[in-house]
Amino acid sequence: MSTQPSETTATLDNPARRLLLKGSAGVLAAYGLMHLVPTSRADTLETLPDYVSWKRQQDLILHGSETIETRRDAIRSGVITPSRTLFVRNNLPAPDPAITEDPDAWEISIEGVGNPRTLSLGELKRMQVTSVASVLQCSGNGRAFFPHGASGTQWSVGAAGCVVWTGVPLKAVIDELGGSADGARYITATGGETIPEGLEPKDIMVERSIPTEALESALLAWEMNDEPLDRAHGGPLRLVVPGYYGVNNVKYVRQLAMTEEQTDAKIQVSGYRVRDVGVSGSSDQPSMWEMNVKSWVTLPLDTTHEGRNLIYGVAFGGTKAIDKVEVSVDGGESWQEAEIIGPDLGPYAWRPFVLATELSSGEHRIVSRATDMDGNSQPRERTDNERGYGHNGWEDHGVSVNVG
Amino acid sequence: MSTQPSETTATLDNPARRLLLKGSAGVLAAYGLMHLVPTSRADTLETLPDYVSWKRQQDLILHGSETIETRRDAIRSGVITPSRTLFVRNNLPAPDPAITEDPDAWEISIEGVGNPRTLSLGELKRMQVTSVASVLQCSGNGRAFFPHGASGTQWSVGAAGCVVWTGVPLKAVIDELGGSADGARYITATGGETIPEGLEPKDIMVERSIPTEALESALLAWEMNDEPLDRAHGGPLRLVVPGYYGVNNVKYVRQLAMTEEQTDAKIQVSGYRVRDVGVSGSSDQPSMWEMNVKSWVTLPLDTTHEGRNLIYGVAFGGTKAIDKVEVSVDGGESWQEAEIIGPDLGPYAWRPFVLATELSSGEHRIVSRATDMDGNSQPRERTDNERGYGHNGWEDHGVSVNVG
Question: Which of A38, B37, B52, B323 could form a disulfide with A151 if both were Cys (CB 3.0 to 4.6 A apart)?
Answer without folding.
Answer: A38
